[in-house]
Amino acid sequence: MKISNVDVKTLKEKYGTPLYIYDVNHIKRNMDGYLNYFKSNEFKTEVLFASKALNIKELIRICMEKKISLDCVSVGEIYTAIKTGFNPSKIYFHGNNKTIEDLKFALNNNVGVIVCDNLMEVECLNDLASSLNKNVKIMLRMNVGVDAHTHKFIVTAHIDSKFGVLYDSIDYKKILDIIINSKNIEFIGFHSHIGSQIFDLNAFKARAEKMVSYCKGFDKPLELNLGGGYGVHYTDADSPIPFDIVSKTLINTVEETLKAQNVKIKKLLIEPGRSIVAEAGYTLYTIGYIKKTPNKEYYFIDGGMTDNIRPALYQAKYDADIVGKENEKKDHIVTVAGKCCESGDLIIENYPLPEAKMGDLLITYTTGAYGYSMSSNYNKALTPAIVFVEDGKDKLVVRRQTLDELIEREI
Length: 411
Ligand code: LLP
Prior knowledge:
alpha/beta; TIM Barrel; 2 domains; nine-stranded mixed sheet
């Protein structure tokens, strides 16, 4: 099996397993998909990468090359970006509970836009900016109350969500009051994100219409950030909407709504995370023991929930192959289990694969988003390496954690 013309078995020999592998051509194609189609003649557009999906230097370098801005949700993500040489004015800082220290860090590092999530944050930021004598651009994250049909843990826009402000609520009015009277805050527009792994274009349309209506009554054209959440293909149960259709639908809906409501905006932004990196990522494991129980057959792998928590957390489904046996008869119904001391550490359950033997390589697909970024050291597992492959060449971009690194902070 080859990925971008690099033999997977060679990668195992060079870097060991578990190993995250990314096809750089695929990442760039995905980015170009948005960059080419998310365009309008009516307003400016900007594509952000939601870096929580994979916040590492090499990917940030690709964002720089492609002129893609960044959504960061922590000082850690911002720090990584700045250390990579990313222009902080192209960073949008999100989060429902940014601490005063977080906000101070953002102001002192000239982060471009702070996406404020609630009334108290706007109050604190206003005080802080004034005491530091800094000017700051803010967007306001709105809870648009649109129901997107996805897993309940990744829906973010129901009425009692921890994220965002309800339009016309008491908090909203107080925020407007602060903004109008602030010498340090420049309010530039609204943000919303209605959930993740969404396939329902109607949810996006309903949301776009609400967001446009929020822009009425301001004396300057605002910016609208439509968030991320565009679904990807994990298994054949998922039918993602192609980039061009997602992008054009969003643009057309906003253009039409602007016309219908007689509103102008300055810029439209999106911030996809998963749909840029998920399908470009693979995880390679070595199969260890194989065990049969009365009702099951297990293939044990040398990683598991520590490198991919998504099956345990969201009942996420993945496809897999045994490397080199892709075309063999898949006549074993197996459960692929990790090596953690945890019964729920199952990557794939009751899945057809060919007969495997100890030492075979198992590859899981579409693991490029929220795999590495949600990895853990549970059971003191070492975080795997990441290798980027492109046109027959491989490049180690994150090396495997070492045992000494695992204990270096312990006193
Ligand atoms: N913008 C905001 C404000 C967000 O909260 C998120 C994701 C995104 C953009 C990017 O969404 P995407 O395009 O990646 O769907 N850990 C979960 C996903 C959590 C997403 C949180 N917010 C998972 O593994 O499925």
